[in-house]
## 1
Amino acid sequence: MAFQNNSSQEVMSEINVTPLVDVMLVLLVVFIVTAPLLTQAIKVTLPKTVSTSPANPNPPQTVHITAEGSVSLDATPLNDHDLAQSLSQQASSHADFELRLHADQHVPYGRVAEVMAIAQHAGVSKLSFITVQQ
């Protein structure tokens, strides 16, 4: 809808910005008033201590599966039976035992699944996969 002036027949195309400025100023005042309320916190002086790193008495062990399908536990070659016994002993003696699985990219998934099943039957509950970033 166009507004017309009686003196000339031109269309009025100016925007009245006064209401827009009024609304923006009101919003600015609201933000200025509420901003200090959002950062209000209880002041506490924390004690100073010496930083320590958490001790990990049982570092995670790594199972390596080569491209041919042979398995080694921390660079010690083992067959499936010996791997199961070793993992079972370590999982029963340490409650937070963690095992890492590092498999060659050419190993069939079936072989990886077999090693994962051996670890599961041995009682390993924390298993992670190691990959190489490119």
Note: The radius of gyration is 35 Å.
## 2
Amino acid sequence: MIQKIKKWFAPLKGEHEPDKKLIVALAAILLFGLIMLSSASSVVSYLKNNNSYYYFNHQLIAIILGALACYLISRVDYHRWQKFALFFLFSSIGLLVLVFVPGLRSNYGTARSWINIFGQSIQPSELVKLAFLFYLSAWLEVKKNQLNDYSQGILPFIVILSLIGFLMYLQPDLGTLLILISTSIAVFFVGGGNFKHIMLVGLMGLAAIFLIYQVSSRPVENANGKTDYKASRFQCLKDPNNEKTKLDACYQINQSLIAVGSGGIFGRGLGQSRQKFNYLPEVYGDAIFPIISEEIGFICNIAFLFLFGFIFYRGYLISKKAPDGFGRNLAIGVVFWMIIQAFFNIGGMINIIPMTGVPLPFISYGGTAIISIMMAMGLLINISKQTKENLRVRNRQ
């Protein structure tokens, strides 16, 4: 048993140093996230738990666990995961089914996206992003010479993605579903998918979004006479200051825009947010970006967003130099997952797209989310150790 464990973590012959610039950027964004979470959550943390550092302490524990998982996965040759592709597919389905099991499921508002195990809330869909990425990357590598065949390429891709998507839709977790679909299409394209087939999937996706918009944009009131949240997301995108909804369904987006605008060029200063004093809901979760904007301002925000772009860029370089298609698919999937999720979160908070309710990667409070993205980063670091050419050498040329 010990020998098997040693074999899993043994370095490969020819491995070089990992991409240190990626690691430094990752450490920087995690540190920044902890600082901003401490500031953004201090008021609500004290009011709810009589401890200004409650959410900070829990996030710190999650980051430590995530860092450990990141380190361990970075030591394991990523090729070893390829033979478990079917296991990851069935695990993805199983995790999504668990949220419907009485006694395990844990509702949060209208969503059934959590399970409760020994008093700890876990969001299976966050783990599914990584598990399904493993399966899809391995499947594409096996099918790389058959992807132009409709029956061998795009059809099974649509069927598998639809199955996972349907389970997410039932929760409902539409934000994560959009991230999964967008990331999967990007990986399918990089993995050698037929461009015409991808366009077909894109048109089907646009048709589905249009259908959802037509249904959801109709005013719907719940039992309390308030606008249903699904409809409000589209209504608020069109007109957040509507007299009927600005203090109800569009309250959060209006407070978010106030926070972003109040930050100006240089911000109010670290810890000086006013919106976190129970004006803006979910300041430690989905709505942490407006608090960041309010406190550090536009200039520092650009530097913060640059970190996301830099991590994406390093991941893109790693994918280009990956030794095989499996590594290339995994690397591009990880960075697209990160950048798409960041766009959905920030775009929703500044009202350029409907709010999706997804966390801001590395920043928002949430143990499952931070651990899953850190595991993905560990995978990316391992791939960087096996690139065909040392990235540091290439940068000097």
Note: The longest strand covers residues 111-117.
